[in-house]
Design a protein that fits this description.
The chain has about 425 residues and is an alpha/beta fold. The protein has three domains: about 15-105 and about 315-350, Rossmann fold (3-Layer(aba) Sandwich); about 110-305, 3-Layer(aba) Sandwich (Rossmann fold), CATH 3.40.50.450; about 360-415, Arc Repressor Mutant, subunit A, CATH 1.10.10. Helix content is about 40%, strand content about 10%. The protein has helices spanning about 15-25, 30-40, 45-55, 70-80, 95-100, 130-145, 160-170, 195-205, 220-230, 245-255, 275-280, 290-295, 330-350, 365-370, 380-385, 390-400, and strands at about 85, 105-110, 120-125, 150-155, 175-180, 205-210, 235-240, 260-265, 285, 375-380, 405-410, 415. Strands 1-2-6-5-4-3-7-8-9 form a nine-stranded mixed sheet, with helices on both faces. A three-stranded antiparallel sheet has the order 10-12-11. Strand 5, helix 8 (about 195-205) and strand 6 (about 205-210) form a beta-alpha-beta unit. The longest helix is centred in the C-terminal third of the chain and has 21 residues, at about 330-350. The radius of gyration is 23 Å and the shape is elongated. The chain starts with 12 loop residues before the first helix and ends with a strand.
Length: about 425
């Protein structure tokens, strides 16, 4: 363990189920969940008290409590696929994640649960990453795992997948990797990562706060990102556009008091605009794992991770519970705030595809351009990573060269030309 534990060794099964019910109740988000537990001490008491108290507001802030049968059915579905629920207050709940203000009330785990208790570093970046970017992400993840860190990421295309691959390559070292999914823990997204998902479930770890079987939607990804950073001591951004979700993760990491690292790139490459802007704003420039390891040294027991935690006694009741039970203004304010956030996310995501698989596929030439960066890449490597016939790649490179989009270099290497 790298944080001082302040939660109980074990919650009663009835209280664990009550917490699942409370978390799955309509309009109860992570912040409201925490405030309700602070106010009433246990989920059992909250479930009994909330309907009457909310009624006093005139029905302006309705909470529909999840039924016991629905909560039991969800947990049984998870257990049937080998996923274990980790609930706020369980001894297995990661202390680093518990320290953030909007920590998930509970989540499901498949794979090596012990990885949740190890010091972690997040690695995120572009889905349309260059081959060089993916190679660097793999090396960074491998080096961090060899140093004893767990790598957290989102199992997306590009940088995320490369980071998981690099961490898995470490084998039996002290490190490992955790994938945080936007959909259900058993839902493979993107579909091309089915093999990676299976590897993660066997030798790594996969977690999600969503119910099993739920397909990811656009609004789920920002929520997923806070968990990636919340599990980690710091987050590294490799290749990300100005509007990338990776920058959202970086901002969340900063808000959570975590370290932010960024890998610089050429100003002519749009994928470098995000990391370069983070460096200008004060992020630590990262060109090797040593930079991260040196920066994080000594943070494993940092006291600021304890600042926002709830402190439970052996019965799972937070210190200060039952104070001013009749005053629920802070709960009402959190309900309003979380509903406002949900509305904003709905407006922002209106018209967007629910996942990348809904977008039209790239033609092969566009795929080749996505793999290339301003740094020269061997053509043999491009053929291997693109999984296209050598003759097709050779022909397309000639066309792209004539179109002024790529440049040839000695040693049978090629690079993209800045737009």
């Amino acid at each position: 363990m790298f944080f001082t534990r302040s939660q109980p060794e074990k919650l009663s099964q009835s209280e664990r189920l009550a917490r699942v019910r409370l978390a799955r109740s309509s309009n109860v988000g992570p912040v409201t969940f925490r405030k309700v537990l602070e106010r009433f001490g246990t989920a059992h008491q909250a479930i009994e008290a909330l309907p009457a108290l909310i009624a006093k507001t005139g029905g302006k802030r309705a909470i529909t409590l999840a039924s016991r049968d629905a909560a039991v059915a969800e947990i049984e579905t998870a257990l049937a696929i080998g996923a274990k629920p980790v609930i706020w207050g369980d001894a297995e709940y990661p202390d680093a994640l518990a320290a953030i203000a909007d920590a998930p009330p509970f989540f499901y785990v498949m794979g090596r649960m012990e990885l949740l208790s190890k010091p972690a570093v997040g690695i995120v970046g572009a889905r349309n990453a260059s081959t060089h970017g993916c190679q660097f992400a793999r090396k960074l993840a491998t080096d961090l795992c060899q140093a004893g860190y767990v790598v957290t990421s989102g199992m997306a295309r590009g940088i995320d997948g490369a980071a998981h691959d690099g961490a898995l390559a470490c084998g039996g070292t002290d490190g490992g990797t955790i994938a945080v999914l936007a959909g259900g823990v058993d839902v493979v997204y993107p579909r091309e990562n089915a093999k990676l998902h299976a590897q993660l479930c066997e030798t790594g770890c996969v977690i999600s706060e969503m119910p099993p079987g739920l397909s990811p939607q656009a609004r789920h990804f920002p929520r997923r990102n806070r968990i990636i950073s919340g599990l980690a001591l710091g987050v590294i951004v490799i290749e990300a556009g100005r509007n990338s979700g990776s920058l959202i993760t970086a901002r969340m990491a900063a808000d959570q008091g975590r370290e932010v690292f960024a890998v610089p790139g050429s100003p002519a490459d749009p994928r470098a605009s995000g990391p370069n802007s983070l460096i200008r704003d004060g992020a630590t420039l990262c060109d090797s794992a040593d930079v991260v390891i040196n920066q994080l040294r000594g943070l494993h027991t940092a006291s600021h991770f304890q600042d926002q935690k709830l402190f439970f006694d052996r019965n799972g009741v937070p210190d200060g519970a039952h104070k001013h039970v009749g005053d629920i203004e802070d709960i009402l304010q959190s309900l309003d705030a979380e509903n406002s956030i949900a509305d904003t996310q709905t407006r922002q995501n209106r018209g967007l595809p629910e996942n990348d698989d809904d977008a039209p596929p790239l033609d092969v030439a566009s795929q080749l351009m996505e793999f290339l960066s301003l740094a020269p890449l061997p053509v043999d490597t491009l053929i291997r990573v693109s999984k296209q016939p050598a003759a097709m790649v050779s022909t397309l490179l000639i066309e792209l060269e004539l179109a002024g989009r790529v440049e040839r270099h000695p040693g049978n290497r090629v690079s993209r030309i800045a737009d």
